[in-house]
Amino acid sequence: MLILGDSISAAYGIEKSAGWVALMDQQLQERCPDYPVINASVSGETTAGGKTRLPALLSRHQPELVVIELGGNDGLRGQPLKLMKQNLASMIALCIDAKAVPILFGMRIPPNYGRRYTSAFADVYDQLADETNTLLIPFQLEELAITEGMIQQDGLHPTEKAQPAIKAVVAQVIKPLVQP
Known about the structure:
alpha/beta; 5-stranded parallel β-sheet
């Protein structure tokens, strides 16, 4: 399984070994020891950067599953949502062409970007999942944001305490796809 993400998956602000991707790898190694989790996440990554890096990652690792956790930085930079959606759709198509199952990790941005942009941003993930028949991991950071101790001081990134909850949501979605 390949994780292509940004700071949420790169364990920004915490030890990488405590991040949800490392926790997922540990859990999978117990059930499926020959099923590695490759974390190709980079803090600050955008959908354009992910789209550029993905072909080489698919060629090198030949994953069965690809979790695409990107778009948050596009939204935070106010980039056109049409371009973000095109980039995500291209990554989904690249995965399918490489015989890997794409899984889209839903994202949201803070409400200070305005209701229209914030709502349209969130809708991109649901629309793409429907249009491409791609599995969607539901966004979960809103719930974490209202729970004390789950979000770092920057107001954006999950704490170490939040990582098991993120891993649990992802694990629930991928469990039917990963059998020992």
